[in-house]
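Researcher: Re-running this chain for the archive, since the previous output was lost when a drive failed. Same request as before.
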Amino acid sequence: MRTKTRKKNKINVITLGCSKNVYDSEVLMGQLKANNKDVVHEEEGNVVVINTCGFIDNAKEQSVNTILDAVKQKEEGIIDKVFVTGCLSERYKPDLQKDIPEVDQYFGTTELPSLLKALGADYKHELVGERVTTTPKNYAYLKIAEGCDRPCSFCAIPLMRGKHRSTPIEDIVTDAKNLAANGVKELILIAQDLTYYGLDLYKKRNLAELLRELVKVEGIEWIRLHYAFPTGFPMDVLDVMNEEPKICNYLDIPLQHISNKILKSMRRGTTQEKTTKLLKEFRAKVPTMAIRTTLIVGYPGETEEDFQILKQWVKDMRFERLGCFTYSHEENTHAYNLEDDVPEDVKQDRANQIMEIQGQISWELNQQHIGKEFKVVIDRKEGGYFVGRTEFDSPDVDNEVLIDAEKHYLKTAEFVTVKITEASDFDLYAEPVVN
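Model: Regenerated C-alpha cells:
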C-alpha cells in the first residue's frame, strides 16, 4: 500500500471527439491555470480528466477504452485520480457509474463548476475568452453557440448538449482578441448549428453581424465557418464573405442525404430540390467558395434506389470537400425506433463508393490548380515537407499543400504565397513564390 505524499498534483486533460470538445478542454485548462493548477494536455499527470465523446459507436468505444486504460493505471499506482466529463458522461452517467465505479467522479457537459471544485479549483466568471489552446499556434476553434434545437432523427447531440444557446457577440469578440494577442491568425467558428446563431439572444439569425465584428479584430487573417445547417441559412453571410477578405470562401454544411424519402425520415426539414437550389445560390453568390459536406449512408430503409440517387447527386454537385459516414443506430434518438436494416458490409461498401467518386472529383478539381498561386498558412513540418493549407481547407479534414523542406525553409504559423506544381487526389505540391 502506498503512503500519501504531499506532491503537487499535475492534471492531465485528455480530449476525445470533435472540435467542440477541444474548445471545452481549453476552457477547462484556462480555468485550472487561473487557479494556479499545474495542467497539461495529453501528457503525463497524476490526475487525469477525460473529456469524452458519445456521438456514435466508434467514438463511444474509444471513450470507454480510454477510461478503462486510465482506471488500470490508477490500480497500478501510476495515477492517483480519474475524472470523466463530456458527452459520453452526460449521456450514460448512471451506466458508467455502475460499470466503471473505479472512476472518482463523472460530470456532464454543463457541470464545469462542479468538475473544477472536484479538482480543487473555483470557477471564475471573469475569465470569458481565457483558455489554454491545444491546437497549433496559428489557428484556434471559436465556439459561438452550444446545443441544438433541430429534430434530426439520427442525432444524439441534443441529448448530450441540450437546447441551442448562442454566446453573446461581445464575449466571442473578447475571446477572439485574446486568441489574436497570443498569435492566433485563423479562427474556426464552430457550433452544433451556425445557421441558428442569434435567434435565441437577438430574435434573428445574426451570424453575419457577428462576422462583421470579428473581422475588426487585429491580427486575425482568416475566419472559417464550420457546421451550418441548410434549412434557414442566413444568405446575408454570403454578402459578408464577398465583402470581407478575412472570411474564407469556405463553408462546412453537413447535408447527410439527398433522397427525399430519407430526408423526410431523417427529419431534415428540406428536400432534394430545395437543397440543390441552395447550393446553386451559394455558387452563384460566391463562385470561388469551397463547399464541404458530410453524408450518411445505410440509414434505416435506405434502398439501393435511394443510394443511387445519392451517388448521382454527388457526381452532379462536385463538392470540393466531402466526408461519408456509415449510419450508427443510437438509442433514445427518433431513428432508434426504426429497424437498422442495412447490413454493415453494405453500409461500408456504399461509403467506399461515395468516397471513390469524391476522390476522382477531388483529383480533377486539384488538377485545375496546377500553375496557379495561392496564399497558404504553414501548419507544421512533417517528414521532408512543410505542410500548409489554402483558405479552402480546414485542418485535419481537408486537402494539404506540401512544400519540399530540403529545398525551401519556411516558418510554421506564417503565411506564404506558393505556386502549385503537382496535384494528387487530396494533396497539392507547391513551390514558394519569391518576390
